[in-house]
Amino acid sequence: MKIITGAEFDGYWKNQAAASRDETVEAAVKEIIAAVRSEGDAAVRRYAARFDKSAPATPEIPAAAAKTAWEKLAAEDAKLAAALELAAGHIRLFSEKQKEQFAGFEYEIAPGLMTGQRIIPVQRAAVYAPGGRFPLISSVLMGVIPALCAGAGEVFLVSPPDEGGLPERRILAAAHLAGGGFPGRLRIFAIGGAQAVAALALGTETVPRADLIAGPGNRYVAAAKRLLYGEVGIDFVAGPTDVLIICGPAAGGADSSVQAAGFTAADMLAQAEHDPDARARALVPSRERAEAVSAALEQRLALLPTAETARASLEAGGLIIIYKDRDEAARIANAIAPEHLELQTADAESWIPLLKNYGSLFIGTMAVEALGDYSAGINHTLPTAGSARFTGGLSVRTFLKTVTTLRSSEGEGYEAARAAAEIIARAEGLAGHAESAALRKGGGQPGICA
Q1: CA 20 to 30 Å from 450, out of 143, 203, 371, 415?
Q2: Mean pLDDT value across residues 416-440
Q3: Is the Cα dihedral 87, 89, 93, 96 positive or negative?
Q4: Which residues are known catalytic residues?
Q5: DSSP label at 229?
């Protein structure tokens, strides 16, 4: 496990090779997009046959199949069904609370100038739910529920098909649970990969064109979202998952120090087990704490079923940084801009004002990041690879558009703004703009459209 000091961090961080785009992946995705653009469903089926476990002739799945999947899950695994119901309820409550924060208004900014904003949901929102080694059941809830709570007219869930032509059965079950309170607004499609993103962005004979695509995916999905942005909206381009844990001094005694190191190691491994490209990092206050965390990682790896993946991740990019004081730790944390930022400190609240860049903040040792991943109600689709410097995670807001309005009537405020617009337009050399403003002087005269 690599251990460095805060003084060494800047040089280490600068010398990290920037994650360059994989030209092979990008070339393959461009080929897929071009084929779907020109051939529609035929191209989607061709790439499904090549990359997925099956290639359904008709990708849309009837709602009854999701209902059946849920009933079967509830009968076979009541504990999982109950856990999913609890998580869905929390996500729905949190999403509804988020929606309350976005409101329209009108405000008379000056006499005769009534400015305003409206909050309008996208009409067609798509949510991608990965299949693969670890089908992300929770991502269905995290994407579909906020989209529906935002008021999207239709929500399309897409996920790769299994051998029988359906998405993984627990993903189907979660889809029924997520859409249960919104009858008729959720449609499900068994398509995956870059071909799914292209089909949603462009529209095909059987796949409707979406206004926005959200949700995590592999490198091909991420590349397709990036390349098609502009033709379709996206939440953001997600990369490998990461966590940064800020550790404070142990409360006291050897036992306390060992327990604190164990918490840190467990949470680092929870990220590392995702993928060899996942990044788990910790900021610790002493060399002794760094060594304790490193030892705890080794002990836990010996018992972890996903140890092979987790070890590969830690060897590739795991990092423990020893900080000298709070200011240095906060500076490093803001530079890393982690997807998940944990505060495993006794005085966690006092750290919060110093921390500016993160996807989601977990305050205190008990706020384990796994709760955010699954059941607390906050979203787990978050900015990665430092993009928390400029964006937040998936939320109700992702599916909302803030648009502005203007009402005008005669008044001194209106006339002042009209004259200013005319002057600025002439300064920019845009005579047409200036003339359209000048025509309104004194109320204007009826034109040919009157």
Answers
A1: 415
A2: 97
A3: positive
A4: 339-340
A5: B
What pLDDT is attached to residue 1? 81
The answer to whether 25-235 and 240-392 have equal CATH topology is yes
DSSP letter string over 88-124? Answer: HHHHHHHHHHHHHT---EEEEEETTEEEEEEEEE-SE
Distances from the Cα of 108 to the Cα of 104, 113, 118, 158, 325, angstroms: 14, 6, 15, 44, 49
Average pLDDT of every residue of the chain: 93
Cβ–Cβ under 8 Å, residues 43 and 32: yes
Domain residue spans of the chain = 25-235, 240-392, 410-442
pLDDT band at 21 (very low <50, low <70, confident <90, very high): low
CB–CB of 94/200 below 8 Å? no
The 3-state DSSP class for residue 8 equals helix
What is the rounded CA–CA span in Å between residue 395 and residue 386? Answer: 19
- Give the C-alpha separation, 192 to 280, whole Å: 28
Answer whether 148's CB lies under 8 Å from 120's CB: no
205-231 average pLDDT score: 96
Read off the pLDDT band of 446 (50, 70, 90): low
Average pLDDT over residues 133-140: 87
Annotation: CATH topology of 25-235: Rossmann fold (3.40.50)
Q: What is the CATH number of domain 240-392?
A: 3.40.50.1980
Average pLDDT for 433-439: 96
**Among the listed residues 276, 220, 282, the one whose alpha carbon sits nearest the alpha carbon of residue 247:** 282
One-letter identity of residue 244: L
